[in-house]
Amino acid sequence: MGIFDKLFGGLGRTREKIDLEELFQGYAPDSEDFYDQLEETLVMADAGIATAEKVDYLMRKKTWEDRYRKGEEARNGLIQVLTGLLNVGDTALKLDTKPSVILMVGVNGVGKTTTIGKIAHQLKDQGKKVLLCAGDTFRAAAAEQLGIWAERAGVDIVRHEEGSDPAAVVYDGISAARARGTDVILIDTAGRLHNKQNLMNELNKIRRIIDRELPDADVETLMVLDATTGQNGLLQAKQFLETAGLTGIVLTKLDGTAKGGIVFAIANECELPVKFVGVGEGIDDLIPFDPKTFVEALFK
To answer: What DSSP assignment string belongs to 174-228?
Structure first.
């Protein structure tokens, strides 16, 4: 199955929610009902009020400038507006140095460990030598779960005992990567400590180790979000954006929700590119994100 087919299948429930075909069939360029229904549809799919209002404004502007008269013209215009909304940064990973680092953050339960395994699998298939670093030493069995994914992906792993200092694990991981000629270090981190401040302090400590030991390395800091949480996920992204220096988002469980519009809210309100979307549980079901393909899969 190709990437588009996987994405198309994974967006089935969201596509049902963002069903605008009837709206376009009765399209009239000066109809307020059209814009009211457009906003309502986007909000129902969890694009958020701010994003829905922005799409409304951009569609009115485009309708006036391009002189839309037919529903098909408006439909194509909306596809262009939504695609443009998602173009807020490079969706590809920047991993040009050796080693490069991917620091994975996010709250517990969003699929962070699984996502790390899937990214490791993709990088391995691209011919890169990958090392996993089990920096989540607070959650019971976190390192064991990451070890299972390391084995599935066929990559190395560095881990310490449960309760160890995560920064020490990261330091050892960097040392091992240098010794082994590793291309990419993938670092897991805790999703919850005693409180949010402790969590952010721990992330900052890990980042200082990376900056000190690998000052010239490319570093991607990716936040994993569960698409089914909708606007709560957006709040999480804003919190981590303030403290963790995010470079992108990985949106998991997109196939299990009708709230796929959260992609547009993330791009609009956080100005963060989505790097991957998860549309299934298989090791190949994490798809590199492309704005044009995503929007086309919503409207096909």
So the answer is: HHHHHHHT-SEEEEE--S--SSHHHHHHHHHHHHHHHHHH-TTS-EEEEEEEEGG
Collapsed DSSP state (helix, strand, coil) of residue 282: coil
Closest alpha carbon to 119 in 295, 228, 244, 248: 248
3-state secondary structure of 78: helix
pLDDT under 70: residue ranges of the chain: 1, 193-195
What pLDDT is stored for residue 15 in this prediction? Answer: 78
pTM of the model: 0.90
Q: Position 233: which residue type?
A: G
Tokens of 261: 């519009």
pLDDT at 94: 96
Nearby residues of 36 by Cβ (< 8 Å), 6 or more positions away: none
Q: How many beta carbons lie within 10 A of that of residue 183, not counting itself?
A: 19
Query: What backbone phi and psi angles, to 5 degrees, belong to 29?
Result: -60, -25
Q: Where are the domains of the chain?
A: 3-86, 100-290
Give the list of residues 6+ apart from residue 193 with CB closer than 8 angstroms, or none. 138, 199, 202
pLDDT value, residue 117: 94
The domain 100-290 is classified under which CATH number: 3.40.630.30, 3.30.40.10, 3.40.50.300, 3.30.1640.10? 3.40.50.300
Four-CA torsion 289, 293, 298, 300, nearest 10 degrees: -160
Instruction: Please say whether the beta carbons of 267 and 86 come within 8 A.
Output: yes
177-206 pLDDT, tens digit per residue, is: 999 999 999 999 987 755 677 777 888 899
Contact (Cβ atoms closer than 8 angstroms) between residue 292 and residue 80: no
pLDDT tens profile 45-69: 888 899 999 999 999 999 899 888 8
Give me the CATH topology for the region 3-86.
Four Helix Bundle (Hemerythrin (Met), subunit A) (1.20.120)
